[in-house]
Design brief:
The complex is a heterodimer of chains A (83) and B (302).
Chain A: H1 3-46, H2 51-82
Helix pairs in contact in A: 1-2
Chain B: E1 10-14, E2 18-21, H1 22-42, H2 51-71, H3 79-94, H4 108-138, H5 147-196, H6 198-215, H7 223-244, H8 257-286, H9 295-301
Helix pairs in contact in B: 1-3, 3-8, 4-5, 5-7, 5-8, 6-7
């Protein structure tokens, strides 16, 4: 178990860890934002004159649901660059 | 080309103790810019507004209508604070585009300060309204078992606001720099490959690109032919230059793409995050200071 092997193992672990962390962390917000956008589009289709307010609220909602995705992105960066 | 993701590095330590980091410098610069702008735009206002005054009035009235709509008329005195947070967050993110400065919101300490100050305002409001014991009792609603949950949600509020804004801005920056490193690595490997076997490959590629261009000059049947032409010509030319030793090592493939990405991350998502941060500040402060119990409110409630 010499030094280079340990270092290689460490980078391997970091790569897999960051990949899984971001991969799984992206599922939830994606589904949530998909729901938000689809319902907003439904609303816009039903009432086109409300399109502008619906659009801003949709972007607000998407930005807020992205938070957990951003958490996993930060954790992935921590694993990759800081660990 | 090792990507080192570092936070804001420290320029020097004021009086040996206080570290002056990139974020301090850029946030002070943002403050100076905003102060100068407000002085410059705010003086000699005329009854009949001309060019710049119309814009400023439009912005301020939009801010006040937004605050009134989401916080109620009794909370209008918060509008300057909300405007300050919004403008300093936007300028803080966009100052990073100047190239040599680091955007102040790409540093957790800057955004966490805003979030915690919003929480302190909320605690101050609820303490001043229903007393310190009232505030503590507020944690035990609706049943005492919920107390730890309420405490956690009280802490999670500033943390989530800060991490959302910081994560978007800083994460975007890291992703753009990772892509830049990858593209310049790709371009150096491609050019070295072309330059490796002498000027033959470069010349052939360049010739192919020129021929394709001449053939399709009048009508591009398919877009991939256009892309192929440009690719062959560019790689051939730079391969030749690389072989000849001029301009070697210039990451030509990394030319446009990271800029497009930073347009999304810095401009769009920076603006959206500033808006979300401001909106959440308004909502949190609004429900921590309800309308004053005047006569018509009581009568309206009855």
């Amino acid at each position: 178990m010499d030094a280079t092997f340990a270092a290689a193992l460490a980078t391997l672990g970091k790569a897999i860890g960051a990949g899984i962390c971001m991969g799984i962390g992206a599922i939830g917000p994606a589904i949530g934002e998909g729901n938000a956008v689809s319902h907003a589009l439904e609303g816009m289709a039903r009432q086109p004159e409300m399109a502008s307010t619906l659009r801003t609220n949709m972007i607000m909602g998407c930005a807020i649901t992205e938070t957990t995705g951003i958490y996993s992105l930060l954790i992935a960066f921590l694993i990759l660059f800081v660990l | 080309m090792e990507l080192n993701v570092t936070g804001a590095f420290i320029y020097f330590k004021l009086f040996g103790v206080i570290p002056i980091t990139q974020t301090t410098v850029s946030s002070f610069l943002v403050a100076v810019i905003l102060i100068f702008l407000s002085i410059f735009l705010g003086r000699n206002l005329k009854k009949k507004p001309d060019g710049k005054q119309v814009l400023v009035e439009k912005g301020v009235s939009m801010l006040y209508s937004m605050v009134e709509e989401s916080m109620g008329a009794h909370n209008l005195h918060w509008a300057p604070f909300i405007g300050t947070i919004f403008l300093s967050s936007i300028c803080g993110t966009f100052i990073g585009l100047t190239g040599f400065l680091r955007s102040s919101t790409a540093d957790l300490s800057c955004v966490l300060v805003w979030a915690v100050s919003v929480s302190v305002i909320i605690w101050y409001n609820s303490i001043s309204q229903n007393g310190f014991t009232g505030w503590l009792k507020g944690f035990t609603e609706p049943i005492v078992v919920m107390t730890p949950m309420n405490i956690i949600s009280e802490i999670a509020q500033p943390v989530s606001m800060a991490f959302r804004h910081f994560g978007n801005v800083a994460g975007g920056g890291v992703i753009t720099s990772i892509l830049y490193i990858a593209l310049s690595g790709l371009s150096s490997s491609v050019l070295n490959m072309v330059a490796a076997n002498g000027t033959a490959a470069g010349a052939v590629l360049l010739a192919l690109g020129v021929i394709l261009f001449v053939v399709n000059r009048t009508r591009w049947r398919k877009t991939w032919i256009m892309i192929l032409t440009v690719a062959c010509a560019v790689i051939g030319l730079f391969g030749l230059l690389q072989a000849a030793g001029i301009l070697s090592g210039v990451p030509i493939l990394a030319f446009g793409i990271p800029a497009v990405l930073s347009c999304y991350f810095d401009l769009f998502s920076g603006f959206v995050q500033a808006f979300v941060f401001t909106l959440l500040t308004m909502v949190y402060i609004a429900n921590s200071c309800p309308p004053p119990e005047t006569a018509e409110n009581a009568q309206e409630a009855a």
